[in-house]
Amino acid sequence: MSDISLVGESQCRVSSVLGRNTRELGKQHLFDGSAETCWNSDQGVPQWVALRWSSPVQVTTIIAQFQGGFCGAANTVVEVPQAEGSNEWHTAHSWPLEDVGTPQTLHLPEPLTTTSLRLTFPSSTDFFGRIIMYKLDVLGKKL
């Protein structure tokens, strides 16, 4: 069975939205398929995007597209909860993002079984720490 997009069945939270303008710059734009809309964080670091599923999933690939100049930097990490239901996160993989506007793909060396996943951007290529992300997709399998 091939991998499928898991984002449609997830709940998403983000660290911030520029000017609290969730209508035009909110998290929903990460998944709408439009090249014209985006999630735009407020300034400051760290920034993050978290996904939660109602039952475990097996993640194999993460795809993200940013605006050049407003990208998560080379120290971006993929995190999972320390334990089920925990608010403590630990790094599962690093993702050395490039400052480009084209889609970037992280193929995980081993599938990651989890009910929550967080991309954390400890720094940004933007001087003020803003992130502008046009697309986020998580591929894998439902368990």
UniProtKB/TrEMBL annotation:
Residues 1-141 form the F5/8 type C domain. InterPro entries: FA58C (IPR000421), Galactose-bd-like_sf (IPR008979). It comes from Scylla paramamosain. It holds the Pfam family F5_F8_type_C. Gene3D superfamilies: Galactose-binding domain-like. This is F5/8 type C domain-containing protein.
